[in-house]
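Async update (no meeting this week)

Hi team, since we skipped the sync, here's where things stand on the single-chain job. The sequence we agreed to prioritize is pasted below, unchanged from the tracker. I ran it this morning and attached the output directly underneath so nobody has to dig for it. Comments welcome in thread, and please keep replies under the output.
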Amino acid sequence: MEERLAKALVSAVNYHDVFAKLLDRGLSAEEVASMLSELGSALRSSTPTAGLSLGDRSCLALALHREATAVTTDRAWEKLDIGIVLEVVR
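Output:
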C-alpha cells in the first residue's frame, strides 16, 4: 500500500468520510490531518444491491473518470461488474 500512496487519488467525499471515522475512533483532528496529508453518482443505478455508500460510489466514480484502479478492502466489490479495474487488498 505504501508504494501506492505516491500516486493515490482520493475524492473529497472519501477524504472526509475517513476523517470523520478516525475522529469517531478518538484521534484528534490534528492527528487525522497529519495522517491524511500523506495521501497526495451515476454508479448508484448500476450497483443497487451492492450496498455501496456515497463514499464507495465516489471512489468508484473517480477511478472510472481517471481510468485508474480502485483499491479497497471491501470484498463485496469483487462482485461488481461496472467496467472499473478493482483490487481488493486483503
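Quick observations from my side:
The chain has a mean pLDDT of 83.
The chain is about 45% helix and 5% strand.
Reply here if anything looks off.
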